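Friendly challenge for the regulars: who can give me the structure tokens for this chain first? No prize, just bragging rights.
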Amino acid sequence: MNESKQEKYLRISQDLVKYVGGLENIQGVAHCATRLRIVLKDNDLANIEKLEDVDLVKGVFIAGDQLQLIFGAGLVNDVYEVFSQYTHTENMSLGDIKQQSAKKQNPFQAVIKSLSDVFIDIMPGILAAALLMGITGVLSKWDVVTNNETLYAINKLASLASNGIFAILPMAVCYSACKRYGGKPILGLIVGAIMLDSSLANAYSVGSGTAVPEIIHILGLPIELVGFQGGIIIALMMGFIVAKLDIFFDKKIPDVVKLLFSPLFTVFISTVLLFTIIGPAGRELSNIITGGLIWTTQNLGVLGYMIFAGVQQIIVITGLHHILGAIEAQLIADTGRNFLNPLMSVALMGQGGAVLGYLALNWKNLKARELCIPSFASTLFGISEPAIFGINLRYKFPLVAGCLGGALAGAYVYFTNLAAFGFGTTAVPGIAICDPSNNGYINYIIAHLIALIGGCVLAIVFGKMTGHQNKSEDIQTVVEEMESENEYTGEIKVVSPVKGIVKNIGESSDPTFASKAMGDGIAVIVDDGEVMAPCDGKVTFVFPSKHAIGITMKDGSSVLIHCGIDTVNMNGEGFETFVSVDQEVKKGELLLRFDTDLVKKKGYSTETMMAFELKEGRQLQMKYTGQTDGSDVIAVLGSNL
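First reply, four minutes later:
Bragging rights claimed.
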């Protein structure tokens, strides 16, 4: 007797409940256009490998503290209906389960998640600048570059390009943090610019004693007008404050004068808080942390060296590590040797090793390779920000592994009395300033290998212990059998559903689509919100939030058009559909329209994806065109391509 769909979905639901740890482990359930999303009380009770083998499941991963199971467009609706009834979790929205997910996070997890969210948007700039900085740092030491007019000029321009993001990093962080916490990003940008205003005394110059800041008084309270170069933690705090002030004044000020007074009050009060409370508190934190680190190395012997090398890169997260340059300079002036430099270098290399460990766990993940390889390369040149902010801090366990790898190497630095004659450069370029006495060069290399291997091995061990491998990326796309009896075998030409810049779906910012778990296809940086039918076919589903539509073609294959990333959270606001389920559509017919400005204002990406799900025996040939007006053929489906 053949199993009905209802019976099949019930069996799947029973299997899912069994492998997520039982009904008592389920806090909430919802779904988007392609994924069933479950919030569990304890993620460790979920058996990921068993879940991957459940019928019709195309991929399993944990993201944002949600267990997400990829079923595919249309199918997920049917599975959810049965699963939610079986688990008694009907009528829960995505907002509901996000609230449940947030409740699971302790304050430390919430802070780490916030840091990750803030830095992920500015990572491309940090990564590009870091690699350029490392390369130019090496090239500038080569005579062939310094003595050749053209090579010198190119290297000089590359050096200028590399300094850009780091020169404005507090401003970029304040902008991104304000956006993350719900404020108008432009206000965060303004306050970030105030932090770096040229009329303020440079923080590094004041720290080294080469500049004296102007002091003003408010009600007798002295305020030093010093810039906040390197003040990453201060920028994060200010971004949060700007956002909350912006939200507060937007609610309290009448609409008729809101546009004038809300940003005025937000920026001015933020500026006052920056110079009176937040800035001084951040600088005091800097003094406490750096002073404590120096004390440990001078008073705790090998343990002090290990502690310093173990936590130094944590200080990089705060941006407070720049003060160490003055201490290094003083060490050289007093003793002629700088023992902090190799400690900072191996601390950095431990983080590089952790990146390699994470990469080893997730080698089949294209996005992981794209991020990890250049991030590791930058650590070789002494730049750890891409590794820390892009990977290690984001996933937490690589950060811990990198710190421990650095601590192990710190012990070796102590026992070999390794030091440097200068400061300001680490990792591979740092060998140039290494003290060669007592086999200094060899010990420098060995110390870095200890950090690298230690960080790598520990990251792999921790990753496997905690189940942090992104196993969903290892799963090959499963093509479902279509029920259609149509045996059309000719070619079908497909165009882009939107105007814009077409790229491979593997380059999408959405990890699910980028992994191709939903099938091969395209991602488009859209010019406008007009979405047209990319081919002839029948509309098989329109998602309730109107951001996704599925079309089945005459050969039985189907396409999913997904407008924006996480736009399901907008619950249809700004989206308007012009077709309904089972409606026949022709290529070029208007499917939906969405307000791209509103999507961006809400903090979401307008990137639009189109993924193919092929009928058995059909093949896909992609033809990417770059910029398209919607008339270019971007893919051909056929039986013998």
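The domain at 492-638 is CATH 2.70.70.10 (Glucose Permease (Domain IIA)). Residues 470-486 have pLDDT under 50 and may be disordered. Your move, everyone else.
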